[in-house]
Design goal:
Blueprint: E1 7-10, H1 16-27, E2 31-36, H2 40-52, E3 56-61, H3 67-81, E4 86-89, H4 104-132, E5 135-140, H5 144-147, H6 153-174, E6 178-185, H7 191-194, H8 198-207, H9 216-227, E7 238-241
Parallel strand pairs: 1-2, 1-4, 2-3, 4-5, 5-6, 6-7
Helix pairs in contact: 1-9, 3-4, 4-6
This protein binds NADP nicotinamide-adenine-dinucleotide phosphate.
Residues 11-12, 14-18, 36-39, 63-65, 90-93, 113, 140, 142, 185, 187-188, 190-193 line the site of NADP nicotinamide-adenine-dinucleotide phosphate (NAP).
């Protein structure tokens, strides 16, 4: 895959899908900025791993829900590299409960972590990329934002919001040559899905046409495509990576 840009920020990249996105994009020659909020040793280990394979990587600590810290993080990247070509808004959380038992705070915390943080990343990214007249953003939404899910009213609202918001950013970024797209993963094997019981995982597995959970690398390759020059005429798109679970 060919990339006209040179560097990328991936939020929540110390583990799970984010870490794999960092590995894959570094493999395509981009300098990857690995954002983490806890466990610097894990982020440092990923940086070392990427560098030992000949890639370029740097770590940057901030909590995506802290607007000031997020903006400072972006400024630090531009100060270091002179530009920021791409952003992958990947950081996210769940806090599952049936709606009748869900406290308002359980709802707003997930909205803040998944949707508000993504808004900050898109808005600040658009400011920087508009000046360059070049850039692309990929937001990691979810199949749950497309079809809802039992016990996930908060998560579904946040991810559905990410999808609608990305399309709106796509309108606003288009005249400045800044593209915004979404990926909607289905069930991907990470710590997030590890938290589900074996029974629930088996139930889901039976309903997935490709007959298995997805791997982080399969999401990462889709992210790479949407950032690459090969997707230069694609904006406001939602790319499902779900094994056919929701078509
Ligand atoms: P994960 O294994 O739980 O990892 C989540 C990552 O996000 C961690 O690195 C975590 O950092 C980081 N993070 C969370 N809140 C943050 C914050 N406020 N500031 C900075 N970093 C933060 O999750 P995953 O499965 O890789 O999921 C990655 C993305 O894909 C999420 O947006 C998720 O909603 C989405 N997704 C996942 C699946 C799936 O099946 N796994 C399906 C659809 C969508 P810490 O280590 O500090 O906690």
């Amino acid at each position: 895959m060919k990339f006209s840009g040179k560097n990328v920020l991936i939020t929540g990249a110390s583990r799970g899908i984010g870490a794999e996105i960092a590995r894959v994009l570094a493999g395509y020659g981009l300098k990857v900025w690995i954002n983490y909020r806890s466990k610097p040793e894990v982020a440092d280990a990923l940086k070392a791993e990427i560098e030992s394979s000949g890639g370029k990587a740097a770590v940057i600590e901030f909590d995506v829900t802290n607007e000031e810290a997020f903006i400072q993080g972006l400024q630090a990247i531009v100060q270091s590299d002179g530009e920021l070509s791409y952003i992958v808004n990947n950081a996210g959380i769940t806090n599952d409960k049936l709606a009748l038992r869900m406290k308002t705070e359980d709802f707003t915390k997930v909205l803040e972590a998944n949707l508000l943080s993504c808004f900050i990343g898109c808005r600040e990214g658009l400011k920087l990329m508009s000046k360059q007249r070049f850039g692309a953003v990929v937001n990691i939404a979810s199949i749950v934002g497309e079809r809802g899910n039992l016990g996930q009213t908060n998560y579904a609202a946040s991810k559905g919001g990410v999808i609608a918001m990305s399309k709106s950013f796509a309108y606003e970024g288009a005249s400045r040559n800044v593209r915004f797209n979404c990926i909607t993963p289905g069930f991907i094997q990470t710590d997030m899905t590890e938290a589900l019981s074996d029974e629930i995982k088996e139930q889901y597995q039976k309903t997935i046409p490709l007959g298995r959970l997805g791997q982080s690398a399969e999401v990462a390759q889709a992210v790479a495509f949407l950032l690459s020059d090969g997707a230069s005429y694609i904006t406001g798109e939602v790319l499902k990576v779900n094994g056919g679970l929701y078509m």
